[in-house]
């Protein structure tokens, strides 16, 4: 089936199911104080909504187990509480089931199947302010959002705080990064009891009990402040997660006028840890694509003049060792063309990096002939990737972005990496505040106008808006590989990439920049704390539609391991997570889109060596396959001997079990391709 056929079929399916979606049952509440209920389509998740007399409350059960005990809803708006004197006025039940197609991603089509309960609350007495809370129950979790009905009668107003509570029925081990002391979400995920944690960023991953895992986050963050959660243990053993929105300098959380729709508050609920990764709940809670023709949006692999700068061999600024020179970038383009990379990034191509230089994105450094480089790249089937580092000066980007994107587009540049290193946006506001969120969105929408894809560094945490704006390809918001170049405390620990898939990566694509092949040090003791095979595994495990092979090309030349990266796609038709434990190990199996339906498997472990058996039941039955396995070689060990890697081939079928042996902080990367009938 061609992509267009597939799209057409999806469209038909959507139309057919739209009729079902329209069937809604809306009722004015009859008996006061009566509780409203709804369940997920499979019945496993049960929601109850009502008031505790005066305050709106909701609770959630999973297979009969209380997960969220009665928790309050509301706001402080213009200094007064909305939510302490309310009654249910009406409610509306609806169902929805359709399937939509992704231009790129971990799956080609996504089912959006939920039951919805919308509850209208109104203040008793004269003020009569109102809000609707819309709950959507999926088989894999819930989302809810507020629609605040114009509380200031057309005048501007401020949200001083959102009072949403998520009162988990009991304390539990959880993984998160702290809000305070963490910049750009570049922290190590810390495991601890919820009750012992200070305010945390989301995603927050919770091992609620042996059979219930939770991931709390938000979806469709638009013109609002990013969420943080503050755990507050109670005497009955429950732990209430209080909403702590990221403030403006003024202390106000959100400025608004008229009706205000908040982002969705989301809780993925899964019987297994690996089940969290399969959920598409946040994507489903975002609006469909606003880009009609997505043909110019092209996922792919890229390389760049980047690691060599972090390792201090090259410089960003002009000078003897300047990295982004015409000749050097052409060398990278040649390498990209030879080895199947579609893009070449060069940081430091534009003025602004040297002392006292004025930053601009509208002309290159004098030793970088951008017209010639872009022409040369195109002649080789490669595209130059632009870069806009702002040092937190979002206003500068807003001033120049129209002209810059227009110019880049005329040079056939399709992707731009943006960066915001700096403590505050424009010297005053937090990147995660409504101020920053507005800016990021402006950049994405403006880029779309000029057919530019965005790779955002120092971003807001992804919330699924790539469904609406699929030119938002990938984002940093992670403690990435770069720490293995210059971190004074030694770099990322072995458990880091065994934790990210269960935490940060749940939010969306992650530009971690994997695949370092040369572990030499500039800062003593700082290098990737992994084996070489684990670096390959990270290329498959950590999803990014624009995936960087981050090392300098000298370190790839002549390396057999590169043949895995050359073959590895960055967009998939299916993704499965066969086995794993949070922070200990992870395995993923991804099926390529189109072609012969090759499968790519990644497996990696923390500092513990591990034997893993992966049944290949997902392969087509009756077909014979060849598995090319890149694995830790004899004696491989992340501390004493990281490089030994073995490449072997075996024949497999859907009945086979793949036996993998991972070294300490080791990994394996496997390509499985159908054998031609004629070959035997
Ligand atoms: Ca960074």
Descriptive notes:
With 680 residues, this protein is α+β, with helices and mostly antiparallel strands. The chain folds into 3 domains: 279 residues, Beta-galactosidase, Chain A, domain 5 (Distorted Sandwich), CATH 2.70.98; 178 residues, Alpha-Beta Barrel (TIM Barrel), CATH 3.20.20; 152 residues, TIM Barrel (Alpha-Beta Barrel), CATH 3.20.20. The chain has 13 helices and 39 strands. A hairpin with a 2-residue loop joins β6 and β7. 51% of the residues are buried. The structure holds calcium ion. Calcium ion binds next to loops.
Oligomer: single chain
CATH level-two architecture of the largest domain: Distorted Sandwich
* Unreliable runs: 1-22
Helical residues, percent: 10-25%
Number of DSSP E strands: 39
Please give the largest β-sheet: 11 strands, antiparallel
Please, how many helices?
A: 13
Task: Provide the β-strand percentage band.
Answer: 25-35%
Shape: globular
Radius of gyration: 25 Å
Identify every distinct bound molecule in the structure, by name, code or SMILES. calcium ion
Output the structural class: alpha+beta
Fold-level CATH name of the largest domain: Beta-galactosidase, Chain A, domain 5
Mean pLDDT reading: 95
Integer tally of domains: 3
For the record, the CATH class of the largest domain is: Mainly Beta
Distance between the termini: 28 Å
Structural descriptors:
single chain, alpha+beta, Beta-galactosidase, Chain A, domain 5, TIM Barrel, eight-stranded antiparallel sheet, 39 strands, 17% helix, binds calcium ion
Structure, briefly:
By secondary structure, the protein is of the alpha+beta class. It has 13 helices and 39 strands.
